[in-house]
């Protein structure tokens, strides 16, 4: 039994009176791609954002490599370097070029010397196939290219796990493929990933496990065949029927 | 008396040009230190405001609102004639410098604050998620974008406030206008005032043009 890289235990999150996450238990092991599906508003983003403490859980534990990072007194900045995050809206820094976007945290958070940071950033851009776009600003890049830069930015820190929150939802359909291709390569390189997405085809081919969330809880989980081929709960069946329609 | 004699009398111009030039230096150096100090103070206040301490922010907002609401001359006169009463004896130059710096800082704070809040939450989150701290995110991600947005209004405001150095002539600051009005009363001729106007144009027109240029190019395409 390998120790999970990331584990959520009894995770709850309320905004005011409203309980958005009603007790999430989830273990993600090394090299695993956990794929999260569920209707809009079911708490998928909130769960991801609790993983790197962008959102502080109301109660419960977030264990990263065996340590509860949701405990009080944990210094979050070093912890967050271990958890890469990719956003639906890319969130690239518009005033920096691609290389600057990727190298900023390497220089300012990891405190690498400028040359070394640039080298590592260039290598990360190379891995997402954008070496020749290093000097382009976000406004000069397509959506797909921007998201690949954002992946490079997260990846360059060599995190233990990467979180993807609907990484292709803001993209024109013809640009989705290039981003999924990069994610596929990451997975093949052994990266541990938690992916929230509606790309069911990608889930079928790449996910080790599919997790269905509804109303702030994990309702059902299993392999892609189990979840898509033989959904047990009526809520999952209804969700999949809506997706297919 | 014809027009050129009234406004461009060569003898008068020649006689008083040196004193007006000395006024140019006073206006120039006062303007320079007011812009630097006022902008810096405004930026610092906006950064403090970004920290989100309620009581502190209340004080900053009250400060900015009052100083933006008061006519500058009122502040200058209060400071100049009032402070000696409480034992503070400042030179007229120092009074002018401090009052205008505080006024520019009030406007600059609001401009920088608007710039900071215009930067989306996603920028903060992206930066924090890669392990940059609050101050690092503010400095490396948010301010470069927010300050850039604020540059055109800030330049305009800096011009407006530094032009107010002319108000200093009321309390005896030997600036351009003061030298010119003195010369005018001695000579009984308006030519020194013409020269003062020309000096102001020479001094401020480059900055007006800079502001115009900044306005045309400040916006880069948003993602
Ligand atoms: N900062 C917040 N304050 C209040 N409510 C929020 C906040 N963030 C999310 N929510 C609410 O939590 C619920 C779940 O949102 P989210 O996690 O974004 O769902 P999903 O990603 O599955 O669509 C939604 O009803 C949303 O309105
Ligand atoms: Mg979401």
From TrEMBL, chain A:
InterPro entries: AAA+_ATPase (IPR003593), ABC_ATPase_HisP-typ (IPR030679), ABC_transporter-like_ATP-bd (IPR003439), ABC_transporter-like_CS (IPR017871), MetN_ABC_transporter-like (IPR050086), P-loop_NTPase (IPR027417)
Topological category with respect to the lipid bilayer: Peripheral membrane protein
PROSITE patterns documented for this protein: ABC_TRANSPORTER_1, ABC_TRANSPORTER_2
GO MF term set: ABC-type amino acid transporter activity; ATP binding; ATP hydrolysis activity
One Pfam family, short name: ABC_tran
Subcellular location: Cell membrane
GO cellular component entries: plasma membrane
Primary residence: membrane
Positions of the ABC transporter domain: 6-240
Highest taxon of source: Bacteria
UniProt entry keywords in alphabetical sequence: Amino-acid transport, ATP-binding, Cell membrane, Membrane, Nucleotide-binding, Transport
Stored Gene3D superfamilies: P-loop containing nucleotide triphosphate hydrolases
Alphabetical list of PANTHER family matching this protein: AMINO ACID IMPORT ATP-BINDING PROTEIN, GLUTAMATE_ASPARTATE IMPORT ATP-BINDING PROTEIN GLTL
Annotated family: Belongs to the ABC transporter superfamily.
Name the record gives this protein: Amino acid ABC transporter ATP-binding protein, PAAT family
UniProtKB/TrEMBL annotation, chain B:
Record has Endoplasmic reticulum as a keyword: no
Subcellular location, record wording: Cell inner membrane; Cell membrane
PANTHER family named among the record's database cross-references: L-CYSTINE TRANSPORT SYSTEM PERMEASE PROTEIN TCYL, MEMBRANE COMPONENT OF AMINO ACID ABC TRANSPORTER
The family this protein is said to belong to: Belongs to the binding-protein-dependent transport system permease family. HisMQ subfamily.
Biological process terms in GO annotation: amino acid transport
Gene Ontology molecular function: transmembrane transporter activity
Topological category with respect to the lipid bilayer: Multi-pass membrane protein
Residue intervals of the ABC transmembrane type-1 domain: 24-211
Pfam families tied to this protein: BPD_transp_1
Keywords associated with the record: Amino-acid transport, Cell membrane, Membrane, Transmembrane, Transmembrane helix, Transport
Gene3D superfamilies cross-referenced by the UniProt entry: MetI-like
Source organism of the structure: Albimonas donghaensis
Primary location group: membrane
UniProt GO cellular component terms: ATP-binding cassette (ABC) transporter complex
Name of this chain's protein: Amino acid ABC transporter membrane protein 1, PAAT family
Keyword Mitochondrion carried by entry: no
Superkingdom of origin organism: Bacteria
Residue intervals passing through the bilayer: 20-46, 58-82, 88-108, 193-214
């Amino acid at each position: 039994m390998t120790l999970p890289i990331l584990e959520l235990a009894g995770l709850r999150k309320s905004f005011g009176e409203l309980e958005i996450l009603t007790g999430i238990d989830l273990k993600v092991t090394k090299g695993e791609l956990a794929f999260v599906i569920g209707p809009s508003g079911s708490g998928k983003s909130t769960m991801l954002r609790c993983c790197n403490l962008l959102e502080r859980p109301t109660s419960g534990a977030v264990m990263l490599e065996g340590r509860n990072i949701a405990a009080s007194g944990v210094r979050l900045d070093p912890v967050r370097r271990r958890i890469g995050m990719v956003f639906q809206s890319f969130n690239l820094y518009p005033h920096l070029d691609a290389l600057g976007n990727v190298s900023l945290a390497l220089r300012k958070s990891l405190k690498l010397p400028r040359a070394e940071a640039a080298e590592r950033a260039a290598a990360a851009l190379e891995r997402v196939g954008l070496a020749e776009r290093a000097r382009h600003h976000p406004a000069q890049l397509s959506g797909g290219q921007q998201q690949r830069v954002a992946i490079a930015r997260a990846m360059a820190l060599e995190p233990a796990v990467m979180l993807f929150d609907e990484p292709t939802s803001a993209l024109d359909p013809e640009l989705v493929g290039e981003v999924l291709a990069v994610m596929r390569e990451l997975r093949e390189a052994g990266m541990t990933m938690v992916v929230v997405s509606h790309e069911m085809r990608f889930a079928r081919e790449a996910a080790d496990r599919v997790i269905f969330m509804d109303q702030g809880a994990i309702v059902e989980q299993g392999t892609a065949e189990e979840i898509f081929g033989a959904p047990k709960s009526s809520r999952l069946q209804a969700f999949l029927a809506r997706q297919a329609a | 008396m014809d027009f050129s004699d009234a406004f461009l009398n060569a003898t008068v111009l020649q006689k008083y040009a040196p004193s007006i030039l000395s006024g140019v230096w006073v206006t120039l150096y006062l303007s320079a230190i007011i812009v630097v100090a006022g902008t810096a103070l405004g930026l610092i206040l906006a950064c403090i405001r970004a920290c989100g301490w309620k009581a502190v922010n209340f004080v900053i907002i009250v400060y900015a609102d009052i100083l933006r609401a008061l006519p500058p001359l009122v502040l200058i006169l209060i400071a100049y004639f009032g402070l000696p009463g409480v034992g503070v004896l400042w030179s007229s130059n120092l009074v002018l410098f401090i009052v205008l710096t505080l006024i520019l800082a009030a406007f600059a704070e609001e401009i920088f604050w608007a710039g900071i809040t215009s930067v989306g939450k996603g920028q903060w989150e992206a930066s924090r998620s890669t392990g940059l701290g609050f101050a690092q995110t503010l400095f490396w991600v948010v301010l470069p974008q927010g300050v850039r947005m604020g540059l055109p209004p800030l330049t305009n405001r800096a011009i407006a406030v530094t032009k107010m150095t002319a108000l200093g002539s009321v309390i005896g600051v030997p600036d351009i206008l003061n030298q010119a009005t003195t010369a005018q009363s001695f000579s009984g001729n308006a030519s020194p005032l013409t020269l003062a106007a020309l000096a102001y144009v020479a001094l401020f027109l480059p900055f007006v043009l800079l502001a115009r240029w900044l306005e045309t190019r400040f916006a880069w395409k948003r993602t």
